[in-house]
Structure formats: C-alpha cells, structure tokens
Amino acid sequence: MKRLTLLLAAALLGACSILPQSEPLDIYLLPGAALPAQTQRVDWSLRVNSPLSNQLLDDARIVVLPEPGRVNTYQGVRWSERTPRLLRNRLLDAFHDDGRIQALSNEEQRLQADLELVSDLRSFHSEYRDGLPHALIRLDASLVDARSQQIIASRRFSISQPASDTSIASVVAAFAQAGDQLSRELVDWTLAEGQRATQ
C-alpha cells in the first residue's frame, strides 16, 4: 500500500510538470498628476460612484482595438484593478487634490451625501490610428440629487491621447495623460453644476 501511494504521488508530480506555466503578468497602475489645490471650499458633500460598464470593460485587462471592429487585449499585462474601480479611484484622487469638496465618499462606504456622481464608462481602450495607438476614454456622467434622485446635469466626456510609440509603457502613459485631462474637466464641471444646484 505504501509503495502504491508513493507511485501515485510520483505520477501526480510528473503530471504537474507537463502543465503549461502560467504567463507572468505585468500589473499597471493608472498614474496621474495631482491637480492644483484650491483654497475655496463648498458646503455640500459628494459621493463618487464606480462607473457602470459593459462586460468587456468590467475587467482588469487592457483592451486594444488593433483595427476598427476588432477587439483584443494586451497579453501579459493587467491594470491593478477592474477598470471601473480604477477610474473611480483616479477621479476621487483628483477631487481630493482639488480640495474644494471636503466631504467625499464612494458607493462602498454607504455614507449620506448631498449629490452623487453616477456615470457610464463607454470606452476605456487603445485604438490604432495611422499605425499609432491612442488611449480613448469616453464617460457619460450625471450629477444627481442624492435625496430626490433627480438628475441635475449630464455631460459626455471624450478624451483621446496618442501614445509616443507602440510599447505598452507608452500606451499606459497615454492613458495617464487622458485620465489627467478627464479629471480636470470632470472636477471643474462637477463643481460648477453642484454650486448652481445647491445655491
């Protein structure tokens, strides 16, 4: 019986050695430049929700369109989080950097807020144009009264940023620049519409 057990163990170990090795992954953060801190403050609170997205974008894979109508992902690389949460955290960082809204939260904290930012992530991928990848972020955002659930304002943000070359590091850098521009535009829009709604 002991010999049979040893033979089975040896067979299992041998079988494990022929299985393909898992592909090593490079994990990328979505880097961002800090927004300049503002001195004025508002007296209302904001909850920033993770964007809704389709099944393709609700993942940590980095999506690329090598040609129109064909979807692929970069092999061996991932974002550090699923894309909707990755973008939500980048936007929250931008609001914190800006500093005008002191009372910030997200949907996971379940805190009461005066207004909430809800959005639909329509695009978060790179696509090739004239042989060069461009990072594309398209976000449909709505500012909502948290009590009445009435939409106060809506806007589509669409940012395209070319990469310097076809390397994944350049693509990630292009996403970072696109995220910076989106953050600046969305923070300013949210503050303007929120102030108008709460006065």
What does this entry look like structurally?
The protein has three helices and nine strands, in the order αβββββαββββα. It has a single domain, classed as ABC-type transport auxiliary lipoprotein component (Rossmann fold), CATH 3.40.50. 25% of the residues are buried. It has 199 residues and is an alpha/beta fold.
What descriptors fit this protein?
about 200 residues, single chain, Rossmann fold, about 30% helix, elongated, alpha/beta
Could you say which structural class the secondary elements and strand pairing correspond to?
A: alpha/beta
Report how far apart the termini are: 83 Å
Q: Could you say how many structural domains there are in total?
A: 1
* SS field, number of helical segments: 3
Number of strands: 9
Counting copies of identical and different chains, the oligomeric state is single chain
At the fold tier of CATH, the topology name is Rossmann fold
N-to-C order of helices and strands: HEEEEEHEEEEH
> Strand count, sense and closure of the main sheet?
9 strands, mixed
| Overall body shape | elongated
CATH-level-4 superfamily name: ABC-type transport auxiliary lipoprotein component
The Cα radius of gyration reads: 22 Å
* Overall pLDDT score: 90
At CATH level 2, the architecture is 3-Layer(aba) Sandwich
